[in-house]
Protein 1
Amino acid sequence: MSETNVPRFIDLTAPQVAALPPDTVAVLPLGAVEQHGPHLPISTDYVTATEAAEAAVAVVAREGSAPVVLLPGLAYTKSDEHHWSPGTIWLSWDTLMHTLVDVGRSLQTSGITRLLFVNGHGGNSALGQVACREIRRRFGLRTFFAHLSVPVDQGGGGSTSSELGMGVHGGHNETSLMLHLRPELVHLELAGRRVPERLAEFDLIGFGKPVSFGWTSDDFGPDGYIGDPTGATAEHGKLLFELAVTRLAAVIGEAARFTTR
Amino acid sequence: MSETNVPRFIDLTAPQVAALPPDTVAVLPLGAVEQHGPHLPISTDYVTATEAAEAAVAVVAREGSAPVVLLPGLAYTKSDEHHWSPGTIWLSWDTLMHTLVDVGRSLQTSGITRLLFVNGHGGNSALGQVACREIRRRFGLRTFFAHLSVPVDQGGGGSTSSELGMGVHGGHNETSLMLHLRPELVHLELAGRRVPERLAEFDLIGFGKPVSFGWTSDDFGPDGYIGDPTGATAEHGKLLFELAVTRLAAVIGEAARFTTR
Amino acid sequence: MSETNVPRFIDLTAPQVAALPPDTVAVLPLGAVEQHGPHLPISTDYVTATEAAEAAVAVVAREGSAPVVLLPGLAYTKSDEHHWSPGTIWLSWDTLMHTLVDVGRSLQTSGITRLLFVNGHGGNSALGQVACREIRRRFGLRTFFAHLSVPVDQGGGGSTSSELGMGVHGGHNETSLMLHLRPELVHLELAGRRVPERLAEFDLIGFGKPVSFGWTSDDFGPDGYIGDPTGATAEHGKLLFELAVTRLAAVIGEAARFTTR
Amino acid sequence: MSETNVPRFIDLTAPQVAALPPDTVAVLPLGAVEQHGPHLPISTDYVTATEAAEAAVAVVAREGSAPVVLLPGLAYTKSDEHHWSPGTIWLSWDTLMHTLVDVGRSLQTSGITRLLFVNGHGGNSALGQVACREIRRRFGLRTFFAHLSVPVDQGGGGSTSSELGMGVHGGHNETSLMLHLRPELVHLELAGRRVPERLAEFDLIGFGKPVSFGWTSDDFGPDGYIGDPTGATAEHGKLLFELAVTRLAAVIGEAARFTTR
Amino acid sequence: MSETNVPRFIDLTAPQVAALPPDTVAVLPLGAVEQHGPHLPISTDYVTATEAAEAAVAVVAREGSAPVVLLPGLAYTKSDEHHWSPGTIWLSWDTLMHTLVDVGRSLQTSGITRLLFVNGHGGNSALGQVACREIRRRFGLRTFFAHLSVPVDQGGGGSTSSELGMGVHGGHNETSLMLHLRPELVHLELAGRRVPERLAEFDLIGFGKPVSFGWTSDDFGPDGYIGDPTGATAEHGKLLFELAVTRLAAVIGEAARFTTR
Amino acid sequence: MSETNVPRFIDLTAPQVAALPPDTVAVLPLGAVEQHGPHLPISTDYVTATEAAEAAVAVVAREGSAPVVLLPGLAYTKSDEHHWSPGTIWLSWDTLMHTLVDVGRSLQTSGITRLLFVNGHGGNSALGQVACREIRRRFGLRTFFAHLSVPVDQGGGGSTSSELGMGVHGGHNETSLMLHLRPELVHLELAGRRVPERLAEFDLIGFGKPVSFGWTSDDFGPDGYIGDPTGATAEHGKLLFELAVTRLAAVIGEAARFTTR
């Protein structure tokens, strides 16, 4: 599924970087290496973020709709909610924050003024927004933070009724995406339904509800996934992926001309 | 507007703290000291957060619906988006993070297992969620993060049509709240309409849109407020406040019995 | 005992802050939330510092003797010597240091050039002095560090003979102050005499002696207080409080015109 | 040139990670994104490290000579010597150190006991060794640090006589490697000879000499590369690459059975 | 003036360290490398602290009055008040704090339970006390902080009337000490009287007064010293030194048997 | 063995520092306080580094071959590989790094442009090189890192055949040096042969081999030394010392005139 003719930042020489057009959008995928239950590889968030970002950048480049370059994605990010499990490689909050800030600082020297994070891991969202402001304040870059798809616990929709809207990790959508992108790595036969039904007792606190709560994934049981992957299909994954790519391509276009006044 | 008979953590002696009932919810208001334009005091977020938290704690205590104590609020928080202005006293992201984590660590020694942040300042939301997870992971507390009202740029509603849904700082609602809570400190005659209309040109990036962006308040102009306070009224503020108190009292009740399985 | 007409920094708007007169002294009370034995609330240091600072600022403002504003006090400070006890909420040394430095940095943007800490907790004294120099060096503010009353272990007098000069925490003076300021929160009937008589065997090392020593409050026994509160009275507390207020008002006056050459 | 059947850590599920055989060697490539003169892409060190590590892991896996998995490489590392140039994205020393330590900490939870860094960027060598010891001490992992090829300034040989033994960045060998691995990204026509001949005046201080010195790449001129790429060939690059792969495969074998007593 | 038969920690082998008697007092001199005006070497505080500590340890060892070892002194400490001047080598507050804490942590492994800082530089006093508590809390060592002589601005006496009690840096006493200890390095002919007479106008704020202030030494003028060294003599220095040694020897004795209950 | 007429930085006054000639080389010895087995004092690395540096500076000063000053050495450095043993006082990696950077920052204010570390402890080498680059980048100093003798595990030779080239800590050479410099502190009768013969089984990983590994000294056994000191002699030590001094004197000369273009 690897795209050719994707404009990659690291394929350039230093003088070529210096010659990038004004308002070029640098796109940085944020993945994760973290347990995703017995049915999905630990690369899941990394794969979805990098594949979607790459495809979106390819679309924009092909259409010439905005100047854009793809940065190497970050595989290791903030997966502290899965710290307890084999397979999780997690950076502490300050390590990831310093990483993002260092990247922003460096891009300033490269003349890049617009930085778009494409995030595949819900656990990065909060810190990523902190980083966006820090980079804006200190280095002047316009910064943007896009989710591959908005996580359910952050206001996004799309979780199935079987999931009671709580397919936040390794559930229907994520499993479908991986059935589309990496079918050989999905072990659907090992998956069941793991929906924290107790959460439905609360009106105000919970995933996608007004009050968030601090959780680690073992709060919900020993299996580490939250959702119902049993009905996932590659077709649904393909649809989700194509929607995400289309939306991200549009985001890149907006990011290139975004202004606040 | 100060409540009597509010159960305050700091009114207790050490042995009284040790004897608090299981599942007592400790409520920590998060304010801000930051510029709010020419018409609102820099205390705005601190006042609204502490007044609402105090009133909600009083309601719960009066009703006996859950064990609860009120912690001293934090006046100085993460106002880096207003760093450029007189009146703003801001902690850097790591200072605030360490403060919240230190509080969580200390509460563990006090036998407190449930900590609810009541936040009056949108700029604290992202970092507060990072802290909730960190405190959960390291000290085992159940942590909750509630907004006084969900900020517009974080999915909340309620901004007026005049504001195009962008009354994020010093606008209609916040000004109304202060006309209700501290009318003598509001200078409505100095306020105009400051709505970043350019943002309406973008579908995907913006306040309350799927893609967030890193901003400081001087990105929108020299006046530092974003919204249209001109039609604010104390009556509207009273309504908002009472809704917030009622909702927060219910949140406290849920927090006391919240479980994930 | 809350004063009206106290000039509070946070009651101002940003333009009002910018218009403060030159040499305005910003007064920042430093309290603590920490165990004070079975007879005093954990708010003791916070109450005494904030009440005295507020009263002193009110005196200066009423007399017009110097330009002055009161900042919101810090409730959570460096109480690591009481880390072992329920009721103590303590910041680590670097968290508090960064907090104080961040405040100093912010005040520079507000045009404030003089910052006076009014400290109610002996455990803050050393770090507070480190912060005073750091803020002076980096941001150019003139900084001052005043104790509500000079702690016994830092050269202050006033501990009773029953205390052998060692009433450093929850003893005669502090209990008297709270009997004056918050009588309803004092449980004098639970207090005894807790004086570390062994310390009298040492001439050079000890509270108020030339050589200081590193201690935590459980070094002296399980009760957490050090002194003899049994004879404390509200009258004595009133006297101490009024002396402190008078002295602090004079300090503010000096701080406004202080110069080194 | 991408290998199939490479055992990749992130292709596994969490239970599969937990079931990895004892003494599995986890291989972590360390690249860089940094200016490499006008003739080489900024990906050079990342490409060479990841390609060689992947090929070596594939050899070992094919031969079954040792249990091994490949971790996602780090593209952004410590390139502070090229901080001044567009195209360089550099982490500060403490950001990279914390990243490496966080990875080591996480691998402990995964049951991994052997970690091999394969480094393509000389600027990572010193810090990488600090990390190896820190991870050993704190988490008990056996850690190893291998260079793709030992850098000239760290005792390695192979720089051409035209380079006076100083082809440390973008010179004959590195350019040859990239002509082999990514010929379409090499702009040999833009390269000249950039050898710091002045260094030959010193016997004791210099690249590959007993005394090292602190340098940034602009110390040697504005072009940012140090060496003589003009005679580089794909054939020489192929030879270097194959030697590196063979050597790394042997290193992996040793790492799997390494013991100190 | 170097003592023979001083028991030095670093002269021991590891097994000898492990065999030190219980309650051995480890003595750590804290000096400074900082400008001391045109008449004194930048080593002044380091020389006085290390010479006095060494002599006191020698006395105690000779008398057998307590088990004691001398640690290597720290030359570079917290001289941020002299940051502006050539000759000053200063550690930031957190660097010094971490150094002291690391030493305390290490001594715990050596079985040392009593650590005495002998401080020759007033600028270390506050942070040293913070470190004493931190080491006590985290590693259980009994920690003590002694001044060579109590600095004037911290309650010590002995400054001459010509100095108005403000001979805090490079004045009568310090110059006399160096005339005794290192006469060949004193340039008395270059010294004048540098007393900040303006400070006498303030009753509450100042050196040795109840309220401390944050200062750097260039606040008082360009010469960097504060006091009146013109009348300094070696005889007076000898007297001061001998008093300090006698007092420190007694402190070591107390430190070896110090207990809080 | 203490040299007279060594130009010591700390013997100077501040104005004398300011008047040092351009290109003066400041020499900073780096030692260690760490276990060295039962036969050598824990001062070993500190003694050898400071004695050699002092002697070399004396030679250069006597010959007038280059402007040079000797800085006070650091006794406490990065000995984390010996963290487990009594006698070791170790700074963590970041404490030492910040110390070195603070020194570099301070020397810039003194007008020093050339800084040479003379290192007696192999465990400092990697971090020292990181510091050299950081100081070069941030403060512009030319920095140099010289080993007293290049450690065996970093490419140096000279370990005896009995040691199989692995006399890295407390072995033949180090013991000989101490027999020359501090014979009264060497307990040769307690030493045996402690050579990790298992390491000889590995071709690529090991001391002085292409691939380094992370180790702590207890990885090799409980005695803490690695090598064969049994045949050490003062004569061999004298030879090594004189060679080191001669070489370091030449390094100082080169450092004073070193340039990169």
Protein 2
Amino acid sequence: MLIDLGSAASFLKEKDNFTIITHAHPDGDTLGSGIGLCLALRALGKKANVINNEEIPPKFRYLEIEPQEFEEQTVVAVDIADVTLMGNSVKEIYETKVDLSLDHHGSNRLFAKLNYVDSSAAAAAQIIYELVELLGVRITPQMADCLYTGISTDTGCFRYANVTPATHRVAAKLMEYGADAAAINVKMFETKTRTYATLERLALDGMQFFYDGRCALITITRDMFAESGSDENECDGIAAISRQIEGVLVGVTMRERRDGTYKASVRTHNPVDASAICARLGGGGHPNAAGCQLPGTREEATKLLLDTIGEFI
Amino acid sequence: MLIDLGSAASFLKEKDNFTIITHAHPDGDTLGSGIGLCLALRALGKKANVINNEEIPPKFRYLEIEPQEFEEQTVVAVDIADVTLMGNSVKEIYETKVDLSLDHHGSNRLFAKLNYVDSSAAAAAQIIYELVELLGVRITPQMADCLYTGISTDTGCFRYANVTPATHRVAAKLMEYGADAAAINVKMFETKTRTYATLERLALDGMQFFYDGRCALITITRDMFAESGSDENECDGIAAISRQIEGVLVGVTMRERRDGTYKASVRTHNPVDASAICARLGGGGHPNAAGCQLPGTREEATKLLLDTIGEFI
């Protein structure tokens, strides 16, 4: 059932002993939203914990909080569009048990008993901010750090098209409540690990251009992972690089998997549709960011991908 | 004389035939502030032009407006802390002729007849926004684009420590007035020229680490400029890279000048003071971003710089 935010607040006020679940491959928004909400519920005198499918990545450890002991009664999902995104260990237990889902993905599958979805919100954390205000909780600097992290990371630090005037106004309020915005942004956007920096250098060294510079291709091999000491978890930043080159409409990053096949991340500028390109190859995604698996050797995969892209530009 | 913003607005309402001057090596803030103010004065039925010391760099050409013909009566400086920053061709004519200066640098030398300085403003454009509201001008999408560009570029897209809640609130208003924020941010932050991308790759290839990884050094030679087709105007982005590596406290970029000597850009994380390092070598700047000229060959310059840095970390 779809509900409004006031009903979501009433529901939270009535219930207690909350488990808040976040999505797999946790990012700043799911963690910031989940932990921010957890702190707000605790401030109301309730018991609440956040459950992640895997360990919190090192860069987000500053958000981490101590768990509480209690018997779970109420399950809340944050920033999870579908049960398939929960991660296996969480999905096994909670797939059919979510009481309330709070999300900003237009593609949300309404898998919970009660669902609040606002696809105009740049981040789930923007929704949680509004909810916490409705709950009448005084936002602490720690909560503000969580919610600011969610908004900042999901908008590329207020850079993307999902940012609205409301996003900026929430950021202003969170700074007033004590969010250490500049320090968070240094951690999120101005810090590269040595291993990532090396992988990025190797990736740039091999960048190739096709179709009169309208397509840029980066290929990351297992050898590059070995040489840099980096791994697939650090690839996300690299996918954005090739599209940034002037004149490039389609930026592609192919990365070699353990079995020697390749996975492609496709980033486009309008009017080229990344999801259409990837759909042709059995994948999918958003209009400007999509992905697909490619069969065959590096040469075969590259040719298939470039031929497909050629039909779109 | 220091004045308040209301007096600045009254002054502009009384006067006409404005020349607005911007600082040398024009950036998004001086251009966005100057052109935004110019458009606002024209909207009041006044004549106004913006004068730059040099051509507007290609990435900022979307801000450009047509000049008007009139006899200059009033001179306004925007985002200029001192006459030495005007650029020679502007300084020659206007050094002692500025009627009103509008600026956000705490270091402003109060060189004009009337001076309004608000060092809490993240960008001069944040001041111009407040001023235009005081003038009672309805902000058009074109004006909003100018002022958003100023704020976005001077804050690294809301990333830096100069951002305050007021900065976010002004950004929200400018989006409501029609600023095409996402498109501006793609141009400003998500676009690299092919020549810059090549220079960046060459620079990264040569990055070296010293003092247990606490200092990273990038050296850009004339050969790299030749190989990439890039030039000194594109170096600013590279200066930021070395400090982004995890564990690095001092990131240094040395670039070779036409005479074979080197100029150093030093970027630090607290508590290391970049301006103190550069002052020791005859240069200066801000606590986290400073610069200096180095004598001698590449080897001599590198040794001198690293020895000096060694005393600070």
